[in-house]
Structure formats: structure tokens, C-alpha cells
Amino acid sequence: MGLEKVPAGKELPDDIYVVIEIPANADPIKYEVDKESGAVFVDRFMATAMFYPANYGYINNTLSLDGDPVDVLVPTPYPLLPGSVIRCRPVGVLKMTDEAGSDAKLIAVPHSKLSKEYEHIKDINDVPALLKAQIQHFFENYKALEAGKWVKVDGWEGVEAAREEIKTSFERAQK
């Protein structure tokens, strides 16, 4: 089965499937799943020597304002393989602006059927402060050495904003 056939989730917006592109703590290589073939391509080698602080992927059948599927970071006890799919629930969103415009990064935790470790995390304020700081620091700096690229973090928003981002992006993709 190709990754393009993976649904957005079981019960949107609270029960989602995230297709992983980049494992947590991986080398500074940006991978992207080709939406047509399902193959994992090297998008670029990051100029800044940083690693992703959580698994990074997207929700199929969504369309965010930047023209791509909704981006999602998923903290897990172990790094996930590119191309794997994990069942999650959203807990918050990091709102940003970059050289291309508005850019939101959802934070989602594994569904309780996968791990009980994250059951207590219901909203962004329940995410450990250090992890939030690492995520924010990463996105504030990961483009720093790329000419013409920049990022401004606008702030954190909670689970309701994450749910709305999923609903709106899913509806946008259906048009």
C-alpha cells in the first residue's frame, strides 16, 4: 500500500495518523515523502548542525496555508523510521512565520493504545517545558545559515487551536 492511501485519521481532529518523514534525533538531513510515489527523498542537507527534537511528519489529506500537508512533531520514547505511520492525538501547535508565509507545526502524542507514557498530556501546557524549549529553539535556528531563509516564532497555542488547524486543513484539501 502506498502512503498516499493512508487516511488523515480515525476520528478527526482528535485521532490522527502521522506519516513520519524524519526520525527524532536524526542527522541534519531533511527528508520528504513524495506524495505520489510514497518514496522517501532527501530534500536537502541542512546547513545548520542541528537535529529534529521529535519525530517529524505530516497528516495526509490535509492542506495547510503553505501549500503542504499539515506538519506534525511527535515525541516518542524511540525514533521512528521514515515512512512509518503513527496514530496520535494533537495537543498543541507552534505558530510561526517564515519566508514563505504562515507555518504551523502541530505537536501530537502517541495514542494511548500505543503507549501509556503520554496519557497525562492533554494540552500544550502539559508538554515538558524542556521539550517545548527544544522544539522552539530548533525552529528559530534551523534555517539560520540558509541564504534568504528565516523563521519567526509567533508562539504556542493549545489543543483547540491544533484541532481547528486539522479541521480547516482537511476541509481545504477536500476542495
TrEMBL record:
GO terms for biological process: phosphate-containing compound metabolic process. The keyword Thylakoid does not apply. Transmembrane segments: none annotated. It is an enzyme of class 3 (hydrolase). It holds the Pfam family Pyrophosphatase. Mg(2+) 1 binds at D66, D71, D103. It catalyses: diphosphate + H2O = 2 phosphate + H(+). Its cofactor is Mg(2+). Substrate binds at K30, R44, Y56, Y142. GO terms for cellular component: cytoplasm. It comes from the Bacteria. Mg(2+) 2 binds at D71. Its main location: cytoplasm. One of its GO terms (molecular function) is magnesium ion binding. InterPro entries: Pyrophosphatase (IPR008162), Pyrophosphatase_sf (IPR036649). The keyword Glycosyltransferase does not apply. It is found in: Cytoplasm. HAMAP family: Inorganic_PPase. Belongs to the PPase family. Catalyzes the hydrolysis of inorganic pyrophosphate (PPi) forming two phosphate ions. Homohexamer. This is Inorganic pyrophosphatase. The gene is ppa.
